[in-house]
Amino acid sequence: MELTWHGHSTWYVTVGDTSLLIDPFFDNPLTSLSPSDIETPDYVLLTHGHADHIADAGEFDGATVVGTPEIVGYVEAEMGVDDTIGMNIGGTVELGDAFVTMVRADHTNGINTSYEYDAGMPGGYVISDKLPSHESDDDTTTFYHAGDTGLMTDMREIFAPYLEPDAAALPVGDHYTMGPMQAAIASDWLDVDHVFPMHYNTFPAIEIDIRDFEHEVKAAGSKAEVHVLEADESFTLE
Q: Contact, 69 vs 123, CB < 8 A?
């Protein structure tokens, strides 16, 4: 599984022959790329309706947009997207070589931070190369994109024991989401081997010293290795 971070919460994930782009927002100061520089993904996954997560959802002709029924209805009506898949919290859909489970996130969800549209529940995605099962399989590779969220016991009680992520991308910028301390607890609760900080240093309100997150992960007793990627840098998850 190939993971590429394009700044903020934007990730390009390749599972086998299937590509997925999560929360496309290329108007962030950490990347020099634009949507036209990115190979069109097979699927675009949207965690929630805020502008810094859906801004470029309509820029990929031929991609299928996935999200809550409310979000995909919005991108159909307002962005001209023709091909969509609506799903919801707890559901798993097979998208090519990937199995994608939508999980809960603790956040708000007005479209474009407006109350004009209801985007349904905010969420995160657990992406795996095999269907989630009670039968644990060490050969399965699984990546958790938390979306915008605060710390939740679901990470410890549901995601870790039953969805078994190997790696997690967690928001760490504070103010609108978890900060370094709570995200470090999340990395411990999730029992992941690898953790990637995201959703930081994009706006003044979420500017942090990322070394604080690395320190907090160690202080929390997490076994996770922290990977602070540069924008547009890739990591191979095996």
A: no
Residue (of 74, 88, 76) closest to 116 by Cα position = 74
How far apart are alpha carbons 197 and 127 in whole angstroms?
17
Q: What is d(CA 210, CA 227) in angstroms, rounded to the nearest whole number?
A: 11
Q: Which helix (H) or strand (E) holds 142?
A: strand 142-145
CA distance linking residue 213 with residue 179, whole number of Å: 8
pTM over 0.85, yes/no: yes
Task: For residue range 152-183, list pLDDT tens digits in order.
Answer: 999 999 999 999 999 999 999 999 999 999 99
pLDDT (0 to 100) of residue 119: 82
Residues 121, 88: contact at Cβ < 8 Å? yes
All domains in the chain, ordered by first residue? 2-236 (3.60.15.10)
